[in-house]
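Task card 7
Instruction: Convert sequence to structure tokens.
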Amino acid sequence: MTDKISLPQLESFLWETADILRGNMDASEFKDYIFGMMFLKRLSDSFEEEQEKVIQHYVSNGKTQAQAEKLALDEDEYDSTFFVPERARWKLLKDLKHDIGAELNKATEIIEEHNSSLEGVLVSIDFNIKNKLSDAKLRDLLSHFSKHRLRNSDFESPDLLGSAYEYLIKMFADSAGKKGGEFYTPTEVVKLLVSLLKPQAGMKVYDPTAGSGGMLVTTRNYLASHGENPSNLSLYGQEMNLNTWAISKMNMFLHGVFSADIRKGDTLRNPQHIENGELMSFDRVIANPPFSLKKWGKDEADNDPFGRFPYGTPPKDAGDLAFIQHMIASVNAEGMMGVVVPHGVLFRGSSEKEIRKGILEDDLLEAVIGLPSGLFYGTGIPAALLIINKNKSEERKNKVIFINGELEFQEGKNQNRLREEDINKILDTFDNYEELKRFSSVIGIEEIRENDHNLNIRRYADTSPPPETFDVKAILGGGIPVAEVQEEYIQETLNGMDVSVVFDRRDDEYYEFKSEIQTKEQIRDFLETDEQQVIAQFEKWWDKYRVSLHDLDTEVKKSEEVMWGYLKELGYE
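Output:
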């Protein structure tokens, strides 16, 4: 191969594999087989690349080709990749014709036998399910993956395969709909949360509900984008779903992360990261736990051996604050954590109120950040981010900043998304700990205490507009009041734009829509922006003032004349 594979090429190639399996199963199922097949191909190609280097090394040092090839059979020669036994290499797998699923299962087993760090990763995928994966389907998959070699030397950039894998996970989440939320958090939300926590080289980072590993990978990307060594970061995680855990492990390996400690199991009932009988502690803890998980393990938590629930245990049908307390218990004395939560966590009463009270009175909460609705797979409800800091700066002690980003987003067909400017606005506001009208407020613990430890974001940072004004004269006779256009809130909405692109001045008190604009839909053609809030404001003026009562009266008279004309034709006088 002479041409290097680009990211768009690789993404397209990988997504085409989904077309082969569609029909027999949905995306939440077939993703596992595609990830598994892709990983087998990558392991084999990467091994052969290293094997050629080993052989070349010995030949260069005086060995014959035969001697070098024999020496290259030693597993100890491969410390920068996985060892792939001959019967599991792609050159044999690609030509399988019969009982393919069983043969692929044997290949995954033998690879794991030779690589302890892969234990349980590949064998979690059962290729031998005849009613879903016929030999014909598997031959098509093998043929498709044989089209491209997946060596590092074949890629335009070193982390190309990891980036393409992240793309594939997102595409599967899109296709899986509600089930996609079980293994994927939108990239923009993850980027925002990681940027709020600002991980640094040398830190230990932990995700107790790791999903497909996207949050941990993003912490590495954050270091790289800030000129630090992403390898100088220790990653830990736990995931309960076996297939999702396997995806997470593959995600790490494909990003070149071989030291990540991702374990299987129920984090609340059976945390796996234990040292000397106690929870391990980390510099940064980050997670998007399942919202309001039912049957999360309250009975076990009431007798928790690790002392993770000092503020009490939440109700048995809402495990949000159980995850939060586990995360707090896992943060070291200098550390921070960030977590995605449903809004109910901010104001629900009973035992949850007591837990909030304990967290607030211990001055652990640094920020509550409201996100727009429709960002997450499987739910249209808005979520919030909580930032916990065990080492608050002096000026932030006994205070919490509330940031309401519910209006800052780009509308999408299936999912809304945070734009770069939306992320930066939240980040800048948090970093500067500043108050912005209808966006953010810094509130002292005394006021929150007076509000019975209620953290409802709108109580402190309300985005609601002032009461709408109505100009009776304009309603009766048409025209858009100049005074209304110049109101402070309206000007904030319009970002100070020049309204003359849509309006003509009728007199000192009123504007009119340009004569060329005959329908509401035409307004967008005249506006020099795609901002939804600006478009919505002009459309509101159209509905409110464009058709006045005077115009309606005229139209009624015209209709009456037409009607009487018809009646006369029919012989009625």
